[in-house]
Design a protein that fits this description.
heterodimer; A: alpha/beta; FAD/NAD(P)-binding domain; 3 domains; five-stranded parallel sheet; 17 helices; 34% helix; B: Elongation Factor Tu (Ef-tu), domain 3; Rossmann fold; 2 domains; five-stranded antiparallel sheet; binds flavin-adenine dinucleotide; binds iron/sulfur cluster; binds FE2/S2 (inorganic) cluster
């Protein structure tokens, strides 16, 4: 029997150094490590891992090609299901998706599917990307609203099937959260750019600076000859805490902070024109991926102290485990079981402190997590000169507001069929964060993929009815 | 890229641009704005759509040079292009028949006012325009406002045109000369809008202001433009820019405009220094 191979660990940039730069933290496997890791997969006949992947990546297949050193076929197998593998390999919560379902977890650690995916995608980027075969033009036109992972996936799939696809994006840069939210040290710009270029290479046209609901309406799309519309507008609206003092100078939504840094390159001010105001002691409220990113960016920009303020305990932290660990290694402090009650300011209107209350965990709530309850008389003041609020986002209402036939839920999400993505308006599909509320890149991609299949079937049926 | 088809210098510190943006020209309504980015490294800034020509596919914007971005833009001419223009953003001004409407404009505000005054006029209102500047050379678009207003009062601090004094004094006179005023609309520097609001509140005249906080995206996703109106936090780019003047928390808005002052000053100095070196 060959010696048992251990799960290969990911080489990372030294935590002292990386807290000062925006270069990628995880460095990626070497060829040798990748092949060793691939050899751990036992090539299950009924691969349970695949069931955990929202886009159904043929995991054993691409891993086998990699193991055998056949990278061209490995990337081909990977891309037959996943249009953005270099991104997924980096940001998918693999530990709760594909990897958790890997058979090896019964006895030890799962195959590092995400890292292998990243390796194969990076190999292709370095060695030249091949454009797959595209079906003959069908003559159908599809409009995609939003260029985040949901929109890009739907666009790529539909283009490969021969449809004419135009993506309308509100911002000046495509990518959605991939471009404006997730910082470059987790997802380098050239990686996102290359994946977007790939989608363009399939014939997809991306029109930036088009806000649907303002520049252009869904009803106009049908009048202009589009046969179907997919809405992948995300959940980009920031939620604030609703406590006194929240509009003081120095209080930012995580979105504003990350948009300034990632989309507008404020970290390179004054070479880039967008300014940024950084505090010496930054308090980040919330503990999801967004909060971790805001904290780690603050650290890199030179904040002396960064504290995450979270009302539950460490066990309930919603961020990916890896992100939390990286944040801790970079010196970010956690203030757990703590909830802000007021932002304190000076006479000039600037933040000087965050009044907080200690919490205790009570009975489980609807989400199954134990509900935090305030401890009377436990108020204290955290000294801080900058507060970043990262407690969640909700869908942007611009499209529903301008499209009366589209039904939304109480939470502002677009109502769509869970399987097909069809909305209450004929010819209109939706998916991703706009439907589910803030979720993950891969779930948005899964929704884009399912909607593309349903749109394709609808267009074929329409064509036969017409003929 | 959005080609600039025409420019003209209006006053020593403001310049008019006609920009090719057919889709925006088609959709824009009075009171709406665009976000622009001058170049790849530029910031996004909001500018009011002062006029539009759907036939030619152009929009007109007027820029007052105050900081780095507005100066960089002012250095462009016909034949150049803006990197990004997106819009029309914000809710249009509510146009209906009010009766007599007094339109108060300061600085670039008179140009921003023009489409609103025109639409209000078309809706059957009597328009009294009150325009003010430090001196005659700084007055903006008075001629165009004259086309749509029934009455125009001009004030300059030094008396070089119209009456000598502040816009506020002229407004006070209009409001107290015995006529019935149904609505005041004010656009301009925050200090001016706040002063207008104080007067009209004491006289009980309904007042709309078009607020101009610092913005980043202009689409509701950053919350940087938030102001307190009544008891609520509003995002000016999506809930505004028009609000009931008497409900705006002016102190907060003034404070929030200063967030980036040191950085803005440094950026401007650097830009001017580089500009003079290359000249
Ligand atoms: C800081 C941060 C970190 C995250 N980290 C992770 C992570 O590590 N792993 C993970 O899986 N997930 C992560 N997420 C969540 C993940 O990014 C989202 O779930 C995912 O991007 C949703 O994809 P989407 O396509 O539905 O929407 P988005 O990515 O939000 O894209 C929507 C796009 O639509 C555009 N748009 C909106 N309205 C209009 C309109 N009216 N007209 C035209 N265009 C419009 C927007 O500008 C945007 O570009 C993170 C999110 C954030 C904010
Ligand atoms: C809805 C809206 C419509 C606008 N329409 C016009 C217009 O038609 N023409 C025009 O010239 N300007 C307009 N403005 C103001 C314009 O956006 C600012 O002048 C511009 O952002 C300044 O950028 P800058 O880099 O040149 O100056 P900065 O260096 O950013 O600012 C210099 C100084 O100006 C002040 N300032 C910054 N931003 C603003 C602002 N948004 N409003 C007022 N003062 C500010 C600050 O106190 C700062 O210290 C509008 C603003 C809004 C919100
Ligand atoms: S796309 Fe994500 S969930 Fe699917 S296999 Fe790859 S890493 Fe796992
Ligand atoms: S479940 Fe694990 S071992 Fe089995 S095919 Fe999938 S990755 Fe390989
Ligand atoms: S400018 Fe970002 S929300 Fe208004």
């Amino acid at each position: 029997m060959p010696p048992k191979v251990e799960r290969q660990s990911m080489p990372v940039q030294d935590s002292d150094k990386r807290a000062e730069n925006f270069d990628e933290v995880a460095l990626g496997y070497s060829m040798e490590q990748a092949v060793l890791e691939a050899s751990r997969c036992i090539q299950c006949k009924k691969p349970t891992c695949r069931d955990g992947c929202p886009v159904g990546v043929e995991i054993p297949q691409f891993v086998k090609y990699l193991r055998d050193g056949d990278l061209p076929n490995s990337i081909k197998a990977l891309k037959s299901r996943n249009n953005l593998p270099a991104i997924c390999g980096r940001v998918c919560p693999q530990e709760t998706q594909c990897e958790v379902q890997c058979i090896l977890t019964k006895k030890g650690l799962p195959v590092a599917v995400g890292r292998l995916e990243r390796f194969v995608a990076d190999w292709e980027r370095k060695n030249g990307v091949t454009v797959p075969e595209i079906a003959a033009p069908t003559g159908h036109k599809v409009a995609i609203v939003g260029s985040g992972p949901a929109g890009l996936t739907a666009a790529a799939d539909l283009a490969r099937l021969g449809h004419t696809v135009v993506v309308f994006e509100a911002l000046h840069m495509p990518g959605g959260v991939l471009s404006y939210g997730i910082p470059p040290f987790r997802l380098p710009r050239d990686v996102t750019q290359a994946e977007i270029d790939y989608v363009r290479s399939l014939g997809v046209e991306i029109r930036t600076n088009w806000i649907v609901g303002k520049t252009y309406d869904v009803s106009e799309m049908f009048a202009d000859g589009f046969d179907a519309v997919f809405l992948g507008t995300g959940a980009g609206l920031p939620t604030f805490m609703g406590v006194p003092g929240e509009n003081l100078n120095g209080v930012f939504s995580a979105n504003e902070f990350l948009v300034r840094v990632n989309l507008m390159n404020a970290y390179q001010f004054p070479e880039y024109d967008t300014p940024l105001k950084l505090g010496r002691h930054v308090a980040v409220v919330g503990a999801g991926n967004v909060a971790m990113d805001a904290a780690r960016v603050s650290r890199r920009l030179g904040a002396e102290e960064v504290t995450i303020v979270y009302r539950r305990s460490e066990a309930e932290i919603p961020a990916r485990h890896e992100e939390l660990e990286h944040a801790k290694e970079e010196g970010i402090k956690l203030k757990l079981l703590t909830a802000p009650t007021r932002v304190l300011g000076n006479e000039k209107g600037w933040v000087v402190g965050l009044e907080c209350q200690e919490m205790a965990l009570g009975e489980p709530d609807a989400s199954g997590r134990r509900r935090p309850v305030p401890r009377q008389g436990s108020e204290f003041v955290l000294e801080t000169d900058m507060v970043i609020v990262a407690i969640g986002t909700s869908p942007n209402p611009l499209v529903p507001q301008s499209t009366p036939a589209l039904q939304t839920s109480r939470h502002g999400t677009i109502i769509a069929d869970a399987e097909t993505g069809a909305t209450t308006m004929p010819g209109v599909w939706a998916g991703g964060d706009a439907v589910t509320g803030a979720a993950t890149v891969i779930s948005a991609m899964g929704a884009g993929k399912r909607a593309a299949a349903s749109i394709h079937a609808y267009l074929l049926e329409k064509a036969t009815v017409r003929a | 890229m959005f080609p600039i088809v025409e420019t003209s210098i209006l006053t020593p510190n403001s310049k008019l641009f006609k920009v090719q943006a057919p889709q925006i020209a088609r959709k824009a309504k009075a009171g709406q704005f665009v976000m622009i980015r001058v170049d790849e490294k530029g910031e996004r800034i909001p500018l009011t759509i002062a006029d539009r020509d759907p036939g030619n596919g152009t929009i007109t914007i007027i820029v007052q040079a105050i900081g780095k971005t507005s100066r960089k833009m002012s250095d462009l001419n016909a034949g150049d292009a803006l990197q990004d223009v997106v819009g029309p953003l914000g809710l249009p001004t509510e146009i209906k028949k009010y009766g007599t409407v007094v339109c108060v404009g300061g600085g670039f505000g008179m140009a921003a006012m023009f489409p609103i005054a025109r639409a209000l006029k078309e809706a059957g209102n009597k328009i009294v325009a009150v325009a003010g500047a430090r001196n005659e050379s700084l007055l903006l678009w008075v001629d165009r406002v004259q086309e749509v207003a029934d009455e125009v009062c001009i004030t300059t601090d030094d008396g070089s045109r119209g009456r000598q004094g502040m816009v506020i004094d002229a407004l006070k006179d209009v409001l107290t000369d015995g006529r019935k005023v149904d609505l005041v609309v004010a656009i301009g520097p925050v200090i001016m809008m706040r002063a207008v609001s104080k007067i009209t509140e004491s006289l009980g005249v309904e007042t709309i202001v078009s607020l101009n906080p610092i913005m980043v995206d202009g689409t509701g996703m950053c919350g940087g433009c938030r102001v307190t109106v009544g008891e609520e936090a509003k995002f000016v780019c999506v809930h505004g820019p028009d609000f009931d003047a008497h409900k705006v928390n002016w102190d907060e808005l003034m404070a929030r405009l200063t967030v980036y002052q040191p950085q803005e000053k440094a950026a401007l100095e650097k830009y001017q220094c580089e500009a003079c070196k290359s000249a």
